[in-house]
Amino acid sequence: MDISAYHKIKSELPDNCRLIAVSKTKPASDIAVLYEHGQRDFAENKVQELKEKYEKLPKDIKWHFIGHLQTNKIKYIAPFISLIHSIDSLSLLKEVDKMAKKSGRIIPCLLQFHIAQETTKFGFTWEEAEKMLASDEFSALKNVKIVGVMGMGTHTEDTEQTRKEFHQLRQYFLRLKDTRFARQPDFRELSMGMTDDYPIAVQEQSTMVRIGSAIFGNRIYPDKTK
Ligand SMILES: *Cc1c(COP(=O)(O)O)cnc(C)c1O
Known about the structure:
Elements: H1 3-12, E1 18-22, H2 28-36, E2 41-44, H3 47-56, E3 62-65, H4 74-77, E4 83-87, H5 90-102, E5 107-113, H6 126-134, H7 136-139, E6 144-151, H8 159-178, E7 189-191, H9 198-203, E8 208-211, H10 213-216
Parallel strand pairs: 1-2, 1-8, 2-3, 3-4, 4-5, 5-6, 6-7
The protein binds pyridoxal-5'-phosphate (PLP).
The site of pyridoxal-5'-phosphate (PLP) has 14 residues, from β8 and α10.
């Protein structure tokens, strides 16, 4: 864990860009240290892990969900989740809406767009998102609120490729903001940028960078070959 890197990154971000600390795989004790330094926004990508950390840690933490969300697990995070970054289908959004209603909440969500070259990354194409947003089924959802968009760039050394992708995501964001969400001031989040590419994301007007390894160190995953 690198507290000085944390403070350096934070001090270099523009005022309108929030740092989301990606704490996946890291122990609650690491989160507690960062919390002591004033960090309140943390992101996880596994429901079970997120729920356990939520139960252990201070209740004024804002928890973000950034991974592939299985519909049967939404109920565990619906009562407290602050923002879901990874909405990639109408059926998922409908399930989130259902669970939000049960919790008596309106859950803020981002639409995840597929902007990378890799096919392994999730997300809407522009056409899919347009179609969903125009549908009556979408209009009927009252317990979710779309507050912006999210995307992951290609894992590459080619900074111009990354810049092009973030630029594209911002165009999607602006088109939605000016058309579908023109009368909704809460539609304002552009979640893009990770450890390796956040400086480019910031130049391309990101409002939320999701940074893990630069702060917490490299993640160690259990060796599945054993
Ligand atoms: C893991 C993850 C991050 C953080 O990645 P780092 O490279 O460690 O900063 C950001 N966004 C998503 C969606 C992730 O899964």
